[in-house]
């Protein structure tokens, strides 16, 4: 953990959280550390937003030539 603090990857902050939501998240995930729980939640939020952005790109270029793909036909 010390190396992360020295490289600037971690920071301390004060937040106001919904107590019942926090307790439910702890119960559902089994994560008891508040820092780990918040990091997991933020990671999940970022992954979901990135997936939505990627999905929004689907079909955005209908005139594009299909890209040839290598297929493995061995059984």
Characterise this structure.
With 75 residues, the chain is mostly helical. The longest helix is centred in the middle third of the chain and has 24 residues, at 34-57. The chain has helices at residues 2-7, 19-29, 34-57. The radius of gyration is 21 Å and the shape is elongated. The chain has a domain at 17-53.
List keywords for this structure.
mainly alpha; 75 residues; elongated
What proportion strand? under 5%
Give the termini distance in whole angstroms.
48 Å
Give the helices and strands as they follow along the chain: HHH
Residue windows where pLDDT falls under 50 for at least 5 positions: none
Average pLDDT level: 84
Number of strands: 0
- Using only CA atoms, what is the Rg? 21 Å
Major beta sheet summary: none
Give the helix tally: 3
Q: Share of helix among residues?
A: 40-55%
In short:
This protein is an all-alpha fold and 75 residues long.
How do the helices and strands line up, and which of them pair or pack?
Layout: H1 2-7, H2 19-29, H3 34-57
